Amino acid sequence: MAEITACRSCGAAGLEPVLDLGRTPLADRLVTQAGLAGPEPRYPLAVAFCPACGLVQIRETVPPEVLFCEDYPYFSSFSDALLRHSRANALELIAERGLGPTSLAVELASNDGYLLKNYVEQGIPVLGIDPAEGPAREAEKIGVTTLQTFFTAALARQLADEGRRADVIHANNVLAHVADTNGFVAGIASLLKEEGVAVIEVPYVRDLIEHVEFDTIYHEHLCYFSVTALDHLFRRHGLYLNRVRRLAIHGGSLRLYVARRERVGESVRSLLAEERAAGVDRLDFYRDFATRVTGVKRGLLELLRGLKAQGKTLAAYGAAAKGATLINYIGIGPDLIDFVVDRNTFKQGRYMPGQHIPIYGPDHLLEARPDYVLLLAWNFAEEIRAQQAAYEAAGGRFIVPVPEPRVL
Ligand SMILES: [Zn+2]
């Protein structure tokens, strides 16, 4: 593990502190029954701002081989909303760019092939790149050719030399995860065909700050991007952010259309102007964030402890990384929350990092009938409420933690 002394993107010194979440366990590292007695490593989690290029980032880099090990429990295909979102994105690009049997669609961090399978169905050659063994194996089963490795500048050059350059490169929720930010973007530049496009999705730092989504901060997320910071990053590698779209997914994201030719559109110009007007490119924008995070902590503890004091029973929904950050930073343990439910069968039977709350399947909600369920996966609130209509109909209530704790 290493603490950075200079900006991950531009290399400038003088990073300014924004928020310190203390020492937390790895948010994706669910604990097994056997592991409960063993040691659980914790790492500092502190957020900083680079005044030179505007990039918000965490200071620590946990080595990728520690973070993304074989046991990595996240399979993309477990969320319906995400699957629909990905399919619509793929079909739109296929139509817009007239892709066919001589094209190549590449996805970086292709997981279980949840996105590329939409290209395969249309007879378009694909290549997935992902270091996680389990998901890569699942991808191969559905016809998504997958290189089980990390994407690097060297791998991109090798593929380009072999004549495997891409018409479309997808990179969803991965750019923020890579320690070598510049190497990754350089790789995209060499892998893209002259007229190709990289379609990259990242959580938007402005949504994070404005909606107090501090639980989206964890060790896997090294960078928290603004359009300003991204524009600097791409230009350094001869790439241009030509088009951008704001998306509601994951609490507010950006979909970036990046190419080797400069054709900057109105969508980019207006978001850059908005960021300048709001001050997203300056430290002042981030100054009171820590105070608002402390406010959520105080409010949520008060709410949960109050309910508990009235004899109410509490559970939580969503054993995802953001849930781990939330319960560990706030200090929500088995004394408050009896159990967590999650649809991902991989996670069931394990325990939340740090707080060791047991994880069950969603059926357990109807069996145990807790009075309140804390929505740790608040980004899928609508989907979860639709699936759990029976629980609410039976009198159960959901609690959303951010931007301020409230009972739905
Ligand atoms: Zn910087």
Walk me through the structure.
By secondary structure, the chain is an alpha/beta fold. The protein is 32% helix and 22% strand. It has 14 helices and 19 strands. It has helices at residues 64-67, 80-97, 117-120, 133-141, 153-161, 181-191, 205-210, 227-235, 266-278, 289-309, 321-330, 363-368, 381-387, 389-393, and strands at 2-3, 16-25, 42-49, 56-58, 60-61, 105-108, 126-129, 146-147, 166-172, 192-203, 223-224, 240-247, 253-259, 314-317, 340-341, 359-360, 372-375, 397-400, 406-407. Strands 8-7-6-9-10-13-12 form a seven-stranded mixed β-sheet. The protein has a six-stranded mixed β-sheet with strand order 16-15-14-17-18-19, sandwiched between helices. It has a four-stranded antiparallel β-sheet with strand order 2-3-4-11, with helices on one face. Strand 14 (314-317), helix 11 and strand 15 form a beta-alpha-beta unit. Helix 5 (153-161) runs parallel beside helix 6. The two termini are 40 Å apart. 46% of the residues are buried.
